[in-house]
Amino acid sequence: MSSKGRPKSPEKRDQILAAAGALFPLQGVANTSMAAIAEAAGVSKQTVYSHFDCKSTLFRAAVTHRVDEHQLTADFFAQSRPVEELLLDLARHLMELLLAEDALQLHRLCISQCISHPEISQQFFEAGPEAVRQLLENYLSQCCEKKLLQIADTQIAAVQLLSMITGGAHERALMGVAIGSKAELDLYLRETVTMFIRAYQSEK
Amino acid sequence: MSSKGRPKSPEKRDQILAAAGALFPLQGVANTSMAAIAEAAGVSKQTVYSHFDCKSTLFRAAVTHRVDEHQLTADFFAQSRPVEELLLDLARHLMELLLAEDALQLHRLCISQCISHPEISQQFFEAGPEAVRQLLENYLSQCCEKKLLQIADTQIAAVQLLSMITGGAHERALMGVAIGSKAELDLYLRETVTMFIRAYQSEK
DNA sequence: TATATACTAGACCCTTCGGTCTAATAAATA
DNA sequence: TATTTATTAGACCGAAGGGTCTAGTATATA
């Protein structure tokens, strides 16, 4: 019934989402025109409006699309390695992920739109920080069962560790402030993981 | 020489700055028109342009103005109280300060404008997070001298503590995501200060 | 093949907005 | 008082941009 005539091209839809997903974070919502998106997508303006009925809808779809892409692997914590080694590895991977320019742009965008588009930032938060926190919390619980660590409240501990990891450079990067060298950053991460384990190590 | 005729009214200037300082964070730069600022300030549009030559200039002046207001007292750390008590007090004060709606708006604004107005976010950062960090670092150093704590790198430790404090709820609030109850937040802060001290206490 | 829909290019409408100009009034200095 | 500048209300300009419309072409289904 609804399959009469030429169907909408999924490729064009993807092109539009890709263009919007690049331009919105880069220039901000208000400074990105629909015409510019159409041009960047290699598509006519009318086609954009054929796939998305207004700017706000397109914005939502584009951010959702990018958030979905950035989902990190859940089996990271499945490895059986020394706790300190795994946590340090996590810290390093996380920083690399979060400090990437496009991730920063997306993050800034969600923060700036959190009043006008609460669902967007909610979604970003759940797919990003909250998901990681949950995974880490589970891992820490397992460590406690194995008596590798001694943590009263693993949820709090997970938030603490993640906050410390990101706190150093991510906050600065989000605000566009220069961050230290790679060596300094890595020193900070090593110190932080060590400090975390010292605070939560099993009693002698 | 330059004092001929009627002088510009400082009151009107303040009204304009107040209006801009309220509207820009609330609605974003692009969504706040000069006409709206003039009206909110109870002043004609021309007067706005008489005091500030363009929108960008006004934006800069307004944010600077608000940042200056929010400077926190430096003598907080001068009190001689038990370390744990003082740090917990700091944590509570900081959270109250950072979670205030207008502070959040200003913070979001700086983040969203950090590409187009790097000086602004730089200034915000130095007057805010960086200033607090410096004060805390000094305090921690003093604690080490008194053998109350044992910290190899007080700069790192200061960042760690501040990150943990803000990490819990501030990150969420910045993204407009609901935060826990006051009781949960306070539990988190107490746990965090305790954990910090446990990690950095002087060796037995 | 006939029909229905997608897509394009471009004109078009209307609103918003940054910024300027004008003419008149108010308030300061000299 | 004479002069100079601030302030106002409002018209005005020009550019940008969201969104619609049209006419023509391409591509799918039936």
Describe this structure in words.
The structure is a homodimer. Chain A is built from nine helices and no strands. Chain A is mostly helical. The longest helix of chain A has 28 residues. The termini of chain A are far apart. Chain A binds a DNA duplex (30 and 30 nucleotides) through helix 3.
What's the arrangement of secondary structure elements?
Two copies of one chain form a homodimer.
Chain A: H1 10-27, H2 34-41, H3 45-51, H4 55-69, H5 83-99, H6 101-112, H7 118-145, H8 154-174, H9 182-200
Helix pairs in contact in A: 1-2, 1-4, 1-6, 2-3, 4-7, 5-8, 5-9, 7-8, 8-9
The structure holds a DNA duplex (30 and 30 nucleotides).
Give a quick precis of the structure.
The structure is a homodimer of 204-residue chains. Helices cover 71% and strands 0% of the residues of chain A.
* Beta fraction of chain A: under 5%
Which H/E pattern describes the elements of chain A? HHHHHHHHH
Round the mean pLDDT of chain A to the nearest integer and report it: 93
Which structural class best describes the helix and strand composition of chain A? mainly alpha
Which terms summarize this structure?
204 residues, DNA-binding, 9 helices, mainly alpha, 71% helix, homodimer, elongated
